[in-house]
Design a protein that fits this description.
The protein has about 90 residues and is mainly β. The protein is built from one helix and five strands. It has one domain. A hairpin with a 6-residue loop joins strand 1 and strand 2. The longest helix is centred in the middle third of the chain and has 12 residues.
C-alpha cells in the first residue's frame, strides 16, 4: 500500500508492503509460530523451514506522518518475516 493521504486532508499515512523476501504481519492479529511458518511456506514454498527465515518485530510509524509530535497510537507493531539469502 505504501504512502496514502486521507481524503479531504493533508494527513499522510504509511503501510509497509510485502516484497519478494519480506512479509509484514500486524502483531495485533496474534499469530502463532505455526501461523507464521504457514505464511512463509505459502509465500516461499513448502520446503521453507525456520533455518531459512528470520523473524523480527518492529514498531513502524503508520499514521499521521509529519502531523504532530510523538504519539504512540500513530505506530503499529509488526512481526516481520524475512527470507534469508543463500
Amino acid at each position: 500500500m505504501g504512502y496514502s493521504t486521507r481524503t479531504g486532508t493533508r494527513i499522510r499515512d504509511f503501510w509497509p508492503d510485502d516484497d519478494t523476501n519480506t512479509i509484514y504481519i500486524t502483531s495485533d492479529s496474534s499469530p502463532s509460530l505455526a501461523d507464521i511458518i504457514e505464511q512463509a511456506r505459502d509465500k516461499w514454498g513448502a520446503d521453507v523451514s525456520l533455518d531459512d527465515i528470520e523473524i523480527t518485530s518492529e514498531k513502524i510509524h503508520t499514521h499521521c506522518l509529519g502531523y504532530d509530535l510523538y504519539d504512540p497510537s500513530d505506530y503499529t507493531d509488526f512481526i516481520i518475516i524475512t527470507k534469508k539469502s543463500n
